[in-house]
């Protein structure tokens, strides 16, 4: 088995998570491995994605930094000190001579195309970050890759009811993140709109069956409508927003009957 075979990576990730859970440390997967775990029992999936995975993505909090580093060093993993220093301790990448994949751990926030605060969001009992954070971690990319589209569609198809539930905690979290960062909101809005055009984005052998693709597209439309209305409401309640309201798209009707 190759040293970066998905099964080998999953096994090692679960080994580290089991130790962290036992120590009551906040450590959780994000990225493609997390989405694979979150959608593992979903009947909309057609097959396991055939991907060459290069790293395991974890999110954690600053208090867990030292014990996680000690554990990995004991297992012959080496931290890239230059990256750790440049990120001011917000990111640690580990490599090992035993494996071809790396461990990529971010602390306190996700900071890629946009920033998302993770303080108060990680549980010592969960294998992956909460679903709304997981979805936003993909939707925050300015340029979606085919595998990002697969991951987003899988989350929307398999967890759409929870993500879009009126008055639900997931939707509240998404609105809370996007209402304070217009750039983040614009990227998410653009990406949700782009999911309507799937022919050039989905692979020849779809990751989702036809029902799953239809389901994901419908959920994306609902989520987009709800977020646009929430953004409009937020702008109506702010001085700057009232001056710029003409730039915001109006809502698209009642979506309460979809679920």
Describe this structure in words.
This protein has 259 residues and is an alpha+beta fold. It has a single domain (6-247), classed as 2-Layer Sandwich (Beta Polymerase, domain 2). It is 48% helix and 11% strand. It has ten helices and seven strands. It has helices at residues 6-22, 32-38, 65-74, 81-86, 131-139, 146-164, 169-178, 182-194, 210-236, 239-244, and strands at residues 27-29, 55-60, 78-79, 91-95, 102-107, 109-111, 115-117. The strands form two sheets. The chain has a five-stranded mixed β-sheet. Strand 4 and strand 5 (102-107) form a beta hairpin. Helix 5 (131-139) packs parallel to helix 7 (169-178), helix 6 crosses helix 9 and helix 8 (182-194) packs antiparallel against helix 9. The longest helix has 27 residues, at 210-236.
């Amino acid at each position: 088995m190759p040293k970066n075979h998905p099964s080998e990576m999953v096994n090692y990730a679960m080994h580290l998570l089991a130790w962290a859970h036992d120590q009551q440390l906040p450590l959780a997967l994000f990225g493609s491995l997390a989405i694979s775990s979150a959608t593992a029992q979903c009947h909309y999936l057609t097959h396991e994605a055939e991907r060459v995975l290069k790293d395991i993505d974890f999110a954690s909090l600053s208090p867990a930094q030292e014990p996680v580093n000690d554990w990995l060093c004991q297992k012959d993993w080496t931290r890239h000190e230059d990256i750790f220093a440049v990120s001011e301790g917000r990111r640690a990448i580990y490599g090992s001579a035993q494996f071809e994949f790396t461990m990529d751990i971010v602390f306190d926030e996700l900071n890629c195309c946009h920033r998302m605060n993770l303080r108060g969001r990680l549980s010592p009992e969960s294998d992956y970050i909460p679903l709304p954070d997981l979805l936003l971690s993909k939707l925050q990319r300015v340029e979606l890759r085919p595998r990002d589209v697969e991951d987003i569609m899988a989350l929307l198809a398999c967890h759409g009811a929870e993500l879009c539930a009126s008055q639900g905690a997931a939707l509240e979290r998404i609105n809370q993140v996007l209402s304070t960062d217009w750039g983040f909101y614009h990227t998410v809005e653009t990406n949700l709109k782009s999911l309507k055009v799937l022919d050039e984005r989905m692979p020849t052998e779809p990751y989702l069956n036809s029902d799953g693709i239809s389901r994901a597209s419908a959920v994306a439309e609902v989520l987009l409508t709800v977020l646009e209305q929430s953004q409009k409401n937020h702008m109506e309640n702010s001085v700057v927003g009232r001056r710029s309201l003409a730039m915001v798209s109006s809502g698209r009707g009642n979506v309460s009957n979809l679920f």
